[in-house]
Design goal:
With 369 residues, this protein is of the alpha/beta class. It has two domains: 181 residues, Rossmann fold (3-Layer(aba) Sandwich); 157 residues, 3-Layer(aba) Sandwich (Rossmann fold). The relative contact order is 0.12.
Length: 369
Amino acid sequence: MARAGPVILHAMLGAGFGGLEQVFLDDQPILERLAAAQGGYAVALARRGGEAARRAAAQGAAAPGPATQGGRLELAAAYSDWDPISLASVRAVVRRHRPSLAVVHGQRAYRLLARTLPRATPIVAVIHKPSFDVDLVRTSYVCVGEHLAQAVRARGVPAERVRFVPNAVRLDGPRAHGRQPGGTPVIVAGGRLHAKKGFDVLIRAMALLREAGVQAACRIAGEGPERARLEGLVAELGLGGRVTLAGWRDDLPAFLAEGDVFAFPSHQEGFPLGLLQAMAAGLPIVSSAIDGPNEMLDDGVSGLLVPDADPRALADALAALLADPARAARLAAAARAAVERDYGPEALERRLGQALASTGVFDGIVSPP
């Protein structure tokens, strides 16, 4: 029997939850609309037992039945990108839906789909970090940062197979309201407690602020393998009354709105959602001057960029914003305006649709909204 329309298999097989997983959830309804517009549907493929699977189900998908906008949710084992159980689990999904194309996030999902899809089925690899497989036959690349797009092209992928589609964030979340008169200013940060996020740099900067007589508290939202080490550093520096590891927060926008300044000391990023959320919240921002944030913030206009892994520079920039509320407000307003202009949901839907449609592999399969 002839197919009614295209089937998009949208895969992310990570176990935890962070920016990549949130992008997967944000992209799913867009792909559902793109497929439904041509009489097809989009399948979200997530790791069985993973947090992204739970959230995908909560936002409207049912495994394996129809979802709210023509999408479906499938769950698969994902122990590695080569073991027989994972391959068989993913292969069963492929056979059930016979996708017209696959859109994948992360190397595990990419490798499992590359091994189980028919060779004629095109793949779109969504690149979130500078580690990816290069395929010149059937894979096109959607990169969340321009620096990632440059890295893909530098490894020999033709420019027509590479698109820059930055992440986006909702604009209807709570806005930063600042401290009460006479209250202690609060520096907020958030992300997975991982070495690459640089939260140890922020904790050391807090010690320097204390030495300089700057009154401030710091709250860091997130969980991860670095918790014990970070807790030890807080104790070692005697910052128990100043630095709080607040744990995982489902309501990160509300958490950010409680702050006065947002610190982003990360060492490596793609196009960080946490930073976008802080911009949308209307917070003044101090960030490491690394790829990703360098594309998102205009130094001195919409935020302050400081050298990576430099607690002194970070402390000085935080102190400068805490001491000059008017300047902080100007930076925050410019950051919010940048999100409204370039990084809202409508911009994401337009760019993602155009990226898929304008790549020759996808002619006749998807089209921009």
